[in-house]
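Hi support team,

I've been running sequence recovery on a batch of backbones for a student project. Most finish fine, but this one hangs at about 90% for roughly twenty minutes before it completes. I'm not sure whether the input is malformed or the queue is just slow. I've pasted the structure tokens below so you can try to reproduce it. Let me know if you need the job ID as well.

Thanks,
M.K.
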């Protein structure tokens, strides 16, 4: 039975990933989230749809360093971690972050600091086990700062540099670290956003491609792959034009 850890398990993309893993084989999930009721609904749904699957529910504050250490340590006490997905994120509109430094700091904390803290503990476990696959959800928004979303994009680009370096720790083991880079995805996070609808992917599609990349031990994956091309082209737009675009 695989032992799978998911942070922000109530996220639509994380839930889609959990359903894919559970449908393949009965697994033991350690589902971590901040909202007890939402987590209970997600966990019950996961085990009801996938007989034999066990879903442990863990509610913690995602910025509490001591709780993060305690949680990962207690999971590992009972056995190894085979797979892990770190999914927390908040799509902060820049005007909100610009008018409140508290919003700005909270956004960086949940998009960058919190995933890094969970990842550090899990990477330490993988170094000892010498196996395991970890994915962190970044974003295409990391590739180029956007006037309307730059705090969010910058937090996600922190994760890319983090992954680039941290993956080196796993050299010589069978463990891997992958950053998922979704484009706009049809989840509660996007509900209030004005993204061009034809480019929006389903969470199930994003999770399926991300899982495949994890299995191949890829360092970075665009979800879906067309975003690699879109972001390459976006990177070619000169600043004097880019700065005027409302994107
Ligand atoms: N949807 C997109 O278009 C898109 C594009 C690129 C990247 N992403 C990334 O994909 C990941 C998953 O997001 P999603 O699209 O699946 O959206 P989602 O369903 O809204 O999930 C966001 C998750 O983050 C959790 N979260 C937010 N603030 C938190 C906090 N302060 N403490 C603990 N947990 C917190 C939410 O918990 P609650 O359920 O309790 O609110 C939820 O589980 C995020 O990292 C996001 O940045 C999404």
């Amino acid at each position: 039975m695989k032992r799978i850890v998911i942070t922000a398990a109530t996220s639509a993309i994380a839930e889609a990933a959990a359903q894919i893993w559970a449908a393949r084989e009965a697994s033991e999930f350690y589902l971590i989230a901040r909202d007890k009721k939402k987590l209970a609904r997600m966990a019950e749904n996961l085990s009801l749809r996938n007989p034999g699957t066990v879903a442990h529910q863990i509610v913690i504050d995602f910025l509490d360093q001591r709780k993060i250490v305690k949680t990962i340590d207690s999971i590992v006490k009972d056995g190894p971690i085979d797979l892990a997905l770190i999914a927390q994120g908040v799509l902060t509109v820049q005007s909100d972050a610009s008018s409140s430094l508290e919003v700005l700091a909270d956004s960086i904390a949940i998009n960058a600091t919190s995933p890094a803290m969970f990842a550090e503990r899990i990477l330490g476990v993988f170094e000892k086990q010498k196996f395991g696959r970890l994915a962190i959800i970044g974003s295409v928004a990391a590739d180029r700062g956007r006037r309307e979303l730059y705090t969010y994009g910058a937090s996600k680009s922190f994760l890319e540099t983090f992954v680039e370096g941290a993956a080196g720790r796993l050299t010589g083991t069978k463990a891997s670290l992958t950053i998922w880079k979704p484009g706009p995805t049809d989840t509660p996070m996007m509900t209030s956003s004005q993204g061009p609808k034809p480019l929006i992917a389903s969470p199930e599609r994003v999770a399926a491609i991300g899982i495949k990349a994890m299995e191949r031990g890829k360092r970075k994956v665009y979800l879906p792959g067309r975003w690699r091309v879109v972001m390459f082209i976006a990177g070619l737009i000169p600043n004097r034009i880019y700065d005027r675009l409302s994107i």
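--
Follow-up from support: It reproduced on our side and the slowdown came from queue contention, not your input. Residues 8, 10-13, 33-35, 38, 62, 87-90, 110, 137, 139, 182, 184-185, 187-190 surround NAP (CB under 6 Å). No action needed from you.
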